[in-house]
Amino acid sequence: MTNNLFETQYDLTKKSKIKIFYESNKILIYSSIVLLILFFGSFSYYADSKEKKKILLSEDYVKAKIYLAKEKKDEALDILKNVVLANDPSYSTLSLFLILNRNLINDREEVLNLFDHLLTNNKFDKEIRHLLLYKKALYNSNHLNEPELLEEVKPLLEENSLWRAHTLLLLGDYFVSKKENLKAKDFYTQVLSIKNLEKDLYDKAISQLKLINYD
Hints:
It is built from ten helices and no strands. The termini are far apart. Helix 3 (91-101) packs antiparallel against helix 4. Mean pLDDT is 85; it is low at 5-10 and 43-47. It has helices spanning 2-69, 73-85, 91-101, 108-121, 126-140, 146-152, 154-158, 164-177, 181-192, 199-214.
């Protein structure tokens, strides 16, 4: 019986401590619960909103392609530019590439601004970012002098990028167009030093070196 009394007193003391703690901290407890509900509610809303935005952008991208199939280029371009500016790493990039592939914009500065907007306002993995840098350099190469072009492609040459060989070929072709064959030869030769090089890139470098030596 003494043991039962002791256990009862222990339970009452324990409950009293819990009650005292609750009374002293109930505002903090309620605030924490409300904050947790708001956090999870906001996170759920954000995730749902982001998914809906991606679906809408995918629908717009498909709509633009349908307009292009019907030769309605102006309508397609309006949609594609909006998708680029929407800052979705996937569909914004695809939209810019479609603009480039179909030559929908003649204004070089406008195209470069779209590139810069993408690169500044989106988080890409390294290779996608390098692809964008390569595409920008390729698009702009005819309008840049040597220091400007080398600065533009610097990240692609300094890092172990999948696009390094493409960049070296671009530089080789650039110097061939300037009739600076020694510089071109150096870049083509660097292509051949890359391990596990794709055959078509290897063949392109060999072909260009033969043309230089023939000249």
